[in-house]
Amino acid sequence: MENFSALFGGAEQPPPAAAAPLGFGPAKAAGAGAAPPPAASAAASAAPPAPGEGKAAAAGPFYLLRELPGSTELTGSTNLITHYNLEHAYNKFCGKKVKEKLSNFLPDLPGMIDLPGSHDNSSLRSLIEKPPICGSSFTPLTGTMLTGFRLHAGPLPEQCRLMHIQPPKKKNKHKHKQSRTQDPVPPETPSDSDHKKKKKKKEEDPERKRKKKEKKKKKNRHSPEHPGVGSSQASSSSSLR
Amino acid sequence: MAMSEKFDSLEEHLEKFVENIRQLGIIVSDFQPSSQAGLNQKLNFMVTGLQDIDKCRQQLHDISVPLEVFEYIDQGRNPQLYTKECLERALAKNEQVKGKIDTMKKFKSLLIQELTKVFPEDMAKYKAIRGEDPPP
Lengths: 241, 136
Prior knowledge:
The complex is a heterodimer of chains A (241) and B (136).
Chain A: H1 2-7, H2 27-30, H3 36-46, H4 53-59, H5 80-83, H6 87-95, H7 102-105, H8 124-129, H9 143-146, E1 154-155, H10 158-161, H11 173-179, H12 190-222, H13 229-240
Chain B: H1 2-29, E1 30-31, H2 36-59, H3 67-74, H4 80-118, H5 120-130
Helix pairs in contact in B: 1-2, 4-5
């Protein structure tokens, strides 16, 4: 309490210890009439000088009763999404599952766009941090400038050809919809497609071999040199001997 | 509507530019001497395409794009995920703040209620100064 009196004037007697800043306390024991005058005088004298006497009068018998902050219509208790008419956007982005890859957002963009930009130095961040120094206008290329673009005939080396490869897009959506009701399968990466192609080739190879064998057998049956099925059995029996 | 038209115009120019570059790449991938004229034409289309895109820039000078979106694009992720996460974070924070406000209102009403039981006359004066607060 000594600190309070030092802040708001040392001449006045400090209020009783039990009174506390709110003006409550033992004044009740002496009677209700005795309590307000000393508290009021203390409050009046202890009012901060900046707000002025009006606020001290508004505080009444209560010490340090400040004015409430102005009420605003928009607070954290309002649903801000409905307030700013973002329900449609919320349902669109949060109601459905948004696909992870960039190629799902830009399906028509050629090239391998799902790779990080740091791999081939094509990041937007590097463009912002180190913008290329160029002229203010775009001038068409003249004939002499175009002579610098005379190329050698023939295909590009394989290193440069990869730029045109796009991730394969799955067209089996109908098949997948039957089995999976929720999320469609994400598009394949080139490594996955290679493995699947290899698997398909492996699966096709024994089938091809069987078909070739069957064709050969048919040819052998119909040819004049080989007698037919009976001869094949005889040959197998002869081999056992 | 005007804003969407500006975006549509920019999108159209960008698509044409990208298509031109793609065709340029096809020509270059297996170049023949007879393709030189076509190559020169594509190169000039590239320059005019950049001019058109530069013209669109003036119409969209007041559009601001948050830098965090570029992080998503650089990682090869869908930028719509950024919008989704913004909305989810906003909703979560909204709910958190609403919870705090509701709890503080309940605390205030309970405190006034209990103080009125203990200090009825002082609380009557307090209510007279403050005015009647609506119940939470």
